[in-house]
Amino acid sequence: MTTMTTARDSSHGSVRAVRFGPRSLIALALVSAVGVVAFTWPFLAPPASRLSAHAQDAPWLFAGLLVLLVAVLAATISESGLGPKAVAMLGVLAATGAALRPIGAGTAGIEPMFFLMVLSGRVLGPGFGFVLGSTTMFASALLTGGVGPWMPFQMLAMGWFTMGAGLLPGPDRLRGRTELLMLAGYGFLAAFAYGTVMNLAGWPFMGTLASSIAFDPHAAVPANLARFVAYCLATSLGWDLGRAAVTVVLTLAVGPAVLRALRRATRRAAFETPVTFDPPPP
Q1: 206 in the Ramachandran plot: left (φ > 0), alpha (ψ -120 to 50) or beta?
Q2: How confident is the model over 228-256, as pLDDT tens digits?
Q3: Could you tell me which residue, 133 or 205, shows the higher pLDDT?
Q4: pLDDT of residue 11
C-alpha cells in the first residue's frame, strides 16, 4: 500500500513543479546579470573600449557564454526539484509551445506560443516557467531550423518572460475576469519587452555601413540610443504589436479553459508528493 502526502508552497499554498532553492536563486541572479550585460553592452562599453573595437565579435562571444550559463542554470534548477512528473509536464508543454510557434511565422508577429507561456508560468510558478521558456525556445529552434547566435538570447529572454508570469501576484486568491485581465496585460507588455530585448541582441550584427540606424561602435551612447529607437520603430514595431495583440486575444478567449486544465493537471500530478511504501503485514 502506498501513502502519499502533498507538499505545498508555504507562501502561496499551492503546488509548484519547481521551487527555487538558494543555489538556484544565486545561479539565476548571476545568469540574469550576465544576460543583461550581453543584451545591453552597446550602451555600456565606451567607444574607446576593446569591446567596441570588436563589435562584430562581441555578440558571438556573448551567445556562446549564454549557452553555457543557461545550461548550468537549468541543471541547477533541475537538481533542486525537477522530478519525473515535472519533466513529463515540461516535455508536453515545451513540445506544444514549439509546435505553436511556427504557425504564424513570418506573418505580422502571429505567435500563439506566447499566451501558452504566460498561462503555464502563472500556474506552475517562476522556477518551472524559466525552465519551460528556455526549453521551448530551444526545441522551437531545432524544429524550425532557427539555430544561430540569436538562439541563446531567445532562450534567456523567453525564460524571463515565462518566469515573470509566475511572479505575478495572487496565484491562489485571484481568479476569474480579474486574473485574465492581469495576464492579458502582462502578456501585452511582455510581448513588447521580448521584442525590444531581442532587437538589442540582433542590432549589433548590422554593419554601420549597411544602415544609418545600425549600431555604431564609435558613436556616443545618446547617438546609439537614437539609432536603436529608430531601428525598433522601423523593423519590429508592427511585429511586436501583432505578437502582443494575439497574446491578449488568445488569453481572453481560451485562457479560462487552459488555466483550468493546467491547474487540474498540476493537482493530479502532485509534483512534490513523496512516495513511500508501507512495510508488509507480519
Answers
A1: beta
A2: 888 888 888 888 888 899 999 999 999 89
A3: 133
A4: 40
